[in-house]
Amino acid sequence: MVKVKVGIINVTGYAGSELARLLFRHPRAEVVSVTGRSAAGQKLGDVFPHLADMDMKITAELDRSVDVAFSAMPHKASAEAVLPLLKAGVKVIDISADFRLKDGALYPRWYQFSHPAPELLGEAVYGLTELYRRQIRKARLVANPGCYPTGAILALAPALKAGLIRPDVILDSKSGISGAGRALALNTHFAEASDSVSAYGLDGHRHLPEIIQELSLLNRKRPVSVTFIPHLIPMTRGILTTCYASFKPGKLSGDSAARELMALYREFYKGEPFVRVVDTPPGTKHTWGNNYCLIHPVIDPRANRLVVVSVLDNLVKGAAGQAIENMNVMFGFDETAGLEALAVYP
Amino acid sequence: MVKVKVGIINVTGYAGSELARLLFRHPRAEVVSVTGRSAAGQKLGDVFPHLADMDMKITAELDRSVDVAFSAMPHKASAEAVLPLLKAGVKVIDISADFRLKDGALYPRWYQFSHPAPELLGEAVYGLTELYRRQIRKARLVANPGCYPTGAILALAPALKAGLIRPDVILDSKSGISGAGRALALNTHFAEASDSVSAYGLDGHRHLPEIIQELSLLNRKRPVSVTFIPHLIPMTRGILTTCYASFKPGKLSGDSAARELMALYREFYKGEPFVRVVDTPPGTKHTWGNNYCLIHPVIDPRANRLVVVSVLDNLVKGAAGQAIENMNVMFGFDETAGLEALAVYP
Amino acid sequence: MVKVKVGIINVTGYAGSELARLLFRHPRAEVVSVTGRSAAGQKLGDVFPHLADMDMKITAELDRSVDVAFSAMPHKASAEAVLPLLKAGVKVIDISADFRLKDGALYPRWYQFSHPAPELLGEAVYGLTELYRRQIRKARLVANPGCYPTGAILALAPALKAGLIRPDVILDSKSGISGAGRALALNTHFAEASDSVSAYGLDGHRHLPEIIQELSLLNRKRPVSVTFIPHLIPMTRGILTTCYASFKPGKLSGDSAARELMALYREFYKGEPFVRVVDTPPGTKHTWGNNYCLIHPVIDPRANRLVVVSVLDNLVKGAAGQAIENMNVMFGFDETAGLEALAVYP
Amino acid sequence: MVKVKVGIINVTGYAGSELARLLFRHPRAEVVSVTGRSAAGQKLGDVFPHLADMDMKITAELDRSVDVAFSAMPHKASAEAVLPLLKAGVKVIDISADFRLKDGALYPRWYQFSHPAPELLGEAVYGLTELYRRQIRKARLVANPGCYPTGAILALAPALKAGLIRPDVILDSKSGISGAGRALALNTHFAEASDSVSAYGLDGHRHLPEIIQELSLLNRKRPVSVTFIPHLIPMTRGILTTCYASFKPGKLSGDSAARELMALYREFYKGEPFVRVVDTPPGTKHTWGNNYCLIHPVIDPRANRLVVVSVLDNLVKGAAGQAIENMNVMFGFDETAGLEALAVYP
Description:
4 copies of one chain form a homotetramer. Chain A is of the alpha/beta class. The first copy, chain A, has helices at 14-23, 44-47, 77-87, 106-111, 129-137, 147-161, 190-193, 207-218, 257-268, 316-330; strands spanning 4-9, 29-35, 58-59, 68-71, 91-94, 125-126, 141-143, 165-175, 198-199, 225-232, 239-247, 275-277, 293-300, 305-312.
């Protein structure tokens, strides 16, 4: 069986190295080129000992003969890196935010740059497989969702689609520290981050417009107001998002409400290989290293409020794993190819 | 200077041992009797090496000649333990929930026992010094607030008192694992708890009625609806609570709103020795081992919503430290006596 | 391809659940029966959410139609559980210590029980593949090595075999907390174990006779004196062992010594799929969730001493992974079958 | 009571901020000047929220009117900073390594600089109070011991002084990550450091010559050979050192040996306020935030070897606390002044 040839742009960050880890065992794909700016010329295993078996050299530029390129570059640089690839006919899965927002005018405001190819924003498919599988199949450019948006959107999609809740939601997210990336910063220094939890992005996190865009699309294109507060948690991987929303009058009340809610969520995700609706509150550790998103919806009957908890591994379903899931859909592979390993627990 | 004689009931839990740690250096108090069921007969330093300097023996029963007793017993057992002491004229600061709720009927429902002395519920003073200092001064029975309620109430009190917000709030709390106590359980096993965050108490945590009671009192005695979801965080100490509430129409809007909000909070806590309203998002680690509650109020202008973050050390301001603060007020000591040490950071 | 039918005795501990995790994706084996005492009757996914995909029920007794049984029972109980299986013709890989020691007299002293089948101690093969591959191929009973012995023996084997060092070694081991098992104990409580390191077993850890036995065999059957001090580290997985030994006079001195040492180690482990001799000091995290043992030998020229650092995942190469490696050898499968996944990092 | 005026050079590192934390509550000292290069002009509480109560501004240069200056500068820069202060008559306690080594020729080799004032190396007193109390009393320049040397020397001093052990010791140290300082580096990034342990400095850590110097002085000035391997542990504070040494022939054997060893250690440290010889293996967490060094000496009878475990908080007894202890001795204060707080546990 011929394997597709894969390139990874910026393999030296955590999303990039996670792509390498997962793709190395993919039955239908072969990583043939990996890039990294500062580490160009080094062996992959010298930068990441756990990838020593891959025996590849990091280069400055991507080999353009690849069939598909994953970009794990920071925003702005990512768009610049993938545009020539797209022109050269390479399929692209962009893990940065550069093709997620449909409205190009949002980039200067939220990401401080003018988008170099706004004409592609309409074409790019938002790579949340559970919602856009059909479009991803034919896409040549997939915008891989952000880690926070993935957990938040999957948690609220069934309720929004069913018209259960008012269009004003609160998302309280708790993220492991790998979400802040591999670059050095005081807030990711072990001595500062361990044994502490703190909120950040209180004046507006960059994932907010992405979440609003997708939740509003789910809400029959009517705008959803979102308060989104992320928190830094002293763990390496994982995001837990607690979602709060008020039920519309007359929706889901009475003794059977909890059961109906659970049934609605189960039905929505029936057959989905990477979403599991669970009966007990999940921990992020239940998804360590794998591509699951676990969702636990409950009702606060005193306040007539929906509370949904979702957990995922920010580097897998929140980044590299979902990107591979998208590749699998784009190339017609089994959707779980390369993503079968169970979570590593404890 | 004569020191008050202090007893600690159940010194072998984390609240009890924290009382011992802090009281050992108190200039006006002397611990003369400490009890513990399973450890009776052992030396305190054998159970807790960090308390070896105290050179005390743990006994089964409290020496009744104490001037004041702190009870760190679990609920129900605590009421039973302190009733004879009260009758004997000993002042009591109860760290359990047994005298926090004014409505005795709530105990069977939330704590699964009939209160043995409901007539004391009216007399007992809720020991949140910032709100009840005057009453604590003359109290002989103080109900020390729960760890979650302390952070939540202090975070919302200024806004509720000022009538800024609607009486429907969401409290998303993140607690370190010492909050679950020293008793053994799978969810506090290091291998299960580390590298994971999870929600619990989704069907109603025991601190909820206490929070509702106090927030409603602050809201001119009109009921406040509360959704409260606690989360377990892989750290030993600390609680961060993120509070969400909608502003009433016409309140705090426009360009100066953020400034006015900050001014209102600063004014409310002016002169308070243990509350600091801070300009940047605080981390729980900033309060490690000390009695501060740090509060950071902001506005989400997109959703016209108040967001307040508070942090404290659950074993200090959330338990033992606040209990000592109450003792200081009851006995007319300097409120900060024994509580002066700065947080241990990092 | 017909799969071998596998049973796991005591799937509810960490070694047992790790066997389940790894075997679920094994191309040549199928788990058909899992047991657990307290959890009998429950679904595997209810006890371990990360194993929900396995959709198996935990039973009290093992299905005896299995081809091979892994026992993850505690010592003594393990021997009792596997004896009837052996009689019934089932191949057994015992993760407990019950068949590791060749001298049955050591069991009463180190494990406080009389061995029920001392006649099997000669037959049982010590399952360190790198040293006993030939014997494992024909074994019907494999004693899977202890987690500490695995790292220590692999670290010292090349030097001992080559006669480089004096027969008096020091092993200073640092283990993650899953090594203490899933049973509840105060020293594995998160609040006690986090942010702390401590030594234990100072009066003789149970793995000591096993280490002495195997190192002595490597030393041409001449006894090796071993000081072994294990330490508990605030991490979930991983063991790092630092080994210290004095060089025999005239061995490996001079400018080329370091290079010769490295060459000797590389030669010793040439072709081994799960041992990698590395040029830089490895971290335990480099082996998270996979079956590698990384070894870094250096010389302290000032003290004319060999220092070897080895790291592995105590639940994989130190338990379940090595057990599967043994199964692969026993059944003639590819040695890496089911064990190909790279370490999850970071 | 007039307080001595204290200055802290480089308050913005972890040793510097720990000095500030501890000195703020010192009954006989007042911090009047704090410096920091990059943070000059900022308020102390803006850099370190836990120090907000100090309400001081960080300056570029130290106020020379101080009575005593603590230097928490890196090596080389520290010597340069304190020389003018010494000339100006300020007493100096240097936390860097710049005055620890008696042999100036060691600086180029181990610290890559030529010592600017080798004539002071003889005068400088090595500030290990337990060994040099008499000299510290009259010192104007104290070289505060390194964090690793403190734990190692205190652990071995009684045995070496008594002539029990051979002059060839192994020190296996485990340090929390604050020991690596507040500067940013990949190995202190939370995602890299958490859940991992690794050895470093295998080709010779800078604390080695300091340890050799002091152990040799204890050994009647006869050289002691030292193998010293430090390890990085995923915790913020704490060092545990496990020391290994062979007994000289005829020393401490037989049934009473363990008891005699313990008695010898207890006698050696009798009356010492900050060393406690303990009967059970200590954890680093037992010293969190305080100035104790706990020592646990045992015998490995099989190998006729002494094993001593010592624990301390690297930022307190290993740095700032010991520096204050030295100040207390230099100024004739109670040795425990400012250092009375018990460890924060758990």
